[in-house]
Amino acid sequence: MKVEQITETEFRKMVVTSSDRLNKNAEFINSLNVFPVPDGDTGTNMSLSFASGAKYVAESTSQNVGDLTQALAKGLLMGARGNSGVILSQVFRGFAKSAAKKEVLTTADLVLALQAGVETAYKAVMKPQEGTILTVARKAAEAAKKAKDQGLDIVEVMKATYEAAEAALKTTPDLLPVLKEVGVVDSGGQGLTFVYQGFYDSLSGNVREDEVHKPTPAEMDEMVHAEHHKSAQGKLNTEDIKYGYCTEIMVRLGAGRLVDQKFDYATFRNHLAQIGDSLLVIADDEVVKVHVHTEHPGKVLAYGQEFGSLIKVKVDNMRLQHETILEKDEEENVDDVHDNELAGDYGIIAIASGQGLTSMFQNLGATYILSGGQTMNPSTQDIVDAIDKTKKEKVIILPNNKNIFLAAEQAAEVCDADAVVVPSKTIAQGMTALLGFNKDASLEENKAAMTDELETVISGQVTIAVRDTTIDGREINKDDYMGIVDGDIVVTNPDRKQAAIEMVQRMLDEDSEVVTIIYGEGGTKAEAEEIKTAVEDFDDELEVEIHQGDQPVYPYLISVE
């Protein structure tokens, strides 16, 4: 019997399945980042973005599929993080516009919605590039139409959609040379493929537990630690914490005196899901790692022992931790919003991470510092909230990261204030842009003047390589330090200081006047002084400044003006 339509029940299941698929494979998608820097976060961004959409769907009481597509699109829009999350939100924005007011989705409705999603996503990107998520979306929609025209039912159409997405994903390295050089497919395209895979599996009843990417035990530790620290605990009340103990265990499967069950991933995960939330289960053939919030940590430990020996146990009382966090937030965040005299009647939002960078932006005129940057891309909703907190009618947003730009643009569109985005791609550009601000000028005049300032600074970043790779013919070894200048890797060196010195040398020209060195986590003031001395040896007329930024990921941020 052919399946002719997607009902409200089926659509809800599709969304849940795809959200779960993205969550389980987020780290695998992250690993496809072209640059071997410790900030590959496409999978995290897409997973969190789609989870926001799934939350809106779950909260909707409508029995109309069209309404649920609107909820999914709204949730994706407000939860969108990073460029990949924003583009994904645009795919489903178009999907929702096409499906609006539909009580159920027929095969024809589904095909039209997929096509509308492609059109909206392409329009949302200023310079659409093939070999990306856009290609995957387009090829998948084309296959859906072809399958529909052949008279296939809606399950087979969704299967054709997913398989075409998978095939298109494999061609992305042929369309983007850098992907071929590094030996990966497009990470955003991979994320969308998982979404369509989830849709098909939900409609067909197909189960793919064995196909979930299985990281190494070392990767498990990193994933669980990162997952635990993603939530914005400062927004909760301590009494709202339903499950009070953050419990982590690692089990060596098949070992131990209490083993009486053969490990099955689905059974194991489903059991733990009944006694807690925030569950993350990662397994390979030898080890399973668990993170769960529960009121009964003892039950988690005992259950783990039924499958093997406990080789790691960690239990934290989250209620006590949360009270400490709230106390710290109360101390640190009283002055989050500043009535900065330099800003006049404007609200100026700078996105940055690190107490030192926060102080520097405030001294330059920013009125609100939104914590974020590499590995911590704020969502559209986060930026809208920041705009609201400024309590200003005119707001300027400095994303300071190219992966935050699209989310900032979306926030500017949906917020109540008159907001503009100055497209700063680096911390240095954001700081330089503030030099072009005039509190007496109009919003558009300020945007133009501040955007012009972006071209006056060269931005350099020093960070560590997380894997061996080759980019633009340059061999990069894991744990080498890389000097990245305006997005291009120009230096690699196993010595951090030397990498920074060589990078600055590449950045200097006869017009260079000021070099600013900002040291963060992994860097030191003493080493920054040594870098300063080496730079002055290049040209004793250069003015070299050193500041403490406290930024993560990059030991040194260095700019040349």
UniProtKB/TrEMBL annotation:
Alphabetical list of SMART domains matching this protein: Dak1_2 (SM01121), Dak2 (SM01120)
Domain of life: Bacteria
PROSITE patterns recorded: DHAL
Membrane-spanning residues: none
Entry-linked Gene3D superfamilies: 1.25.40.340
Ranges where the DhaL domain occurs: 9-201
PANTHER family: DEGV DOMAIN-CONTAINING PROTEIN DR_1986-RELATED (PTHR33434), PHOSPHATASE PROTEIN (PTHR33434:SF4)
Record's protein name: DhaL domain-containing protein
Lineage: Bacteria, Bacillati, Bacillota, Bacilli, Lactobacillales
